[in-house]
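Morning run. Coffee first, then this:
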Amino acid sequence: MNQQKHRSLTRRLWLFAGGSFAFGFALVPLYDVLCDVTGYGNRSRLAEASEVVEAPVTDRLVTVEFISTAPTVGSWEFKPEVKSIEIQPGKLYEAHFYTRNLRPHAVTAQAIPSISPLQATQYFQKTECFCFTPQAFEADQAREFTVRFIVDPKLPPTIDRLTLGYAMYDAKEGSG
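And here it is:
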């Protein structure tokens, strides 16, 4: 009698495991259907949203200044290649930063961006940035980093100067 109960339980557990496995496979198409119905997480819509559409405002110039800091003195050489550029809102631009690990050992760093004035943050869009992921450096390694950005043409007309700043920090162990 005990053996029959064990077989019955074993069958039910195998059915449960098989059902869980099948449900896991069914989640992908179910997620796609849910995304199509609701419009959230739809891969094609996300791809469309990520495309930058340039529509420059030709009669307006905004100055973008670049600054950099490395709070751990003596650990980094970190500076923008140019101090500032004049841009037309709605047009894609890029800027370059020179970075060098001054230590005799490998290290991982993370750049933290800031934009000022604060009310301009919502109009400044980075399409590619070295600040998105931690960066690994070998001892005494130097690299050039690029940030690509576009300033929304809806930037209020009272703002004619923006500052894009980066602070270079050592990334914590295990964070990257």
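The longest helix spans residues 2-38. Good start to the day.
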